[in-house]
Amino acid sequence: MTPDLDAWDAWPPRAVADRLAGLDLPWCVAAGWALDLFRGAPSRPHGDLEIAVPAAGFARVAERFPDCDFYVADDGAVVPATPEALAVSHQTWAWDRAAARWRLDVFREPHAGDVWICRRDARIRRPYAEIIRRTPDGVPYLIPEIALLFKAKHARDKDEADFRGVLPLLAPDQRRWLDDGLALTAPAHPWRAALAGP
Question: Which residue, among 32, 27, 35, has the nearest Cα to 108 in the 3D structure?
């Protein structure tokens, strides 16, 4: 039986960081939660939790969640995370069997050794050492300019709110990097004008 797609009760970032403590792998909280960890406080409710891991390290991450079954999420459906399914989509949802709830979405990211490769455009690359920061209590999160680059594709209300909330906190080099990334992935994106402003 396929789990209910809407049965989300995501773990908080700290709980996942505790599960992955000591894992020698460059993983980080991604998406909206990453932006709130950068800001230092939640700015809105989060219905899910995404983390990003190097694709080759996914099995090592999954081992830390023996109470979960993993499913590949693609195009509004989920299927068991077989090798064939893993090749279809980068999103892997963790189903907590006891709670009958989705707890986590694991993004399996392209990489070349210790270098992250953007799944939207392979010309965009950065060493993992440059793209992961940590909260004061040690939770790793994706730097905001990369989180926003991915959010730019959909530009839903929450993505727009995240961009407007984080924009004043971005340093000039972060604004330039995001603008350069958008120039490659979405040249006409309206965020580019805001990035060029004061």
Answer: 27
Topology of the domain comprising 13-153+165-182: Beta Polymerase; domain 2 (3.30.460)
Q: Where are the domains of the chain?
A: 13-153+165-182
Residue 116 bridge partners (DSSP): 111, 126
Burial 138-164 (b: 16+ CB within 10 A, else e): ebbbbbbbbbbbbbbeeeeebbeebbe
Residue with structure tokens 């402003």?
A: 197
H or E segment at 84?
helix 83-86
Global pTM reads 0.95
The pLDDT, as a whole number, for residue 2 is 80
Closest to 163 (Cα-Cα) out of 140, 186, 184 = 186
What digits encode the pLDDT tens for the residues 142-172?
Answer: 999 999 999 999 879 999 999 999 999 999 9
Phi/psi of residue 181, each to 5°?
Answer: -65, -40
Task: Read off the tokens for 95.
Answer: 């189903």
Residue 1 has pLDDT above 80, yes or no: no
Token pair recorded at residue 50: 């995404």
Q: What is the DSSP letter of 3?
A: P
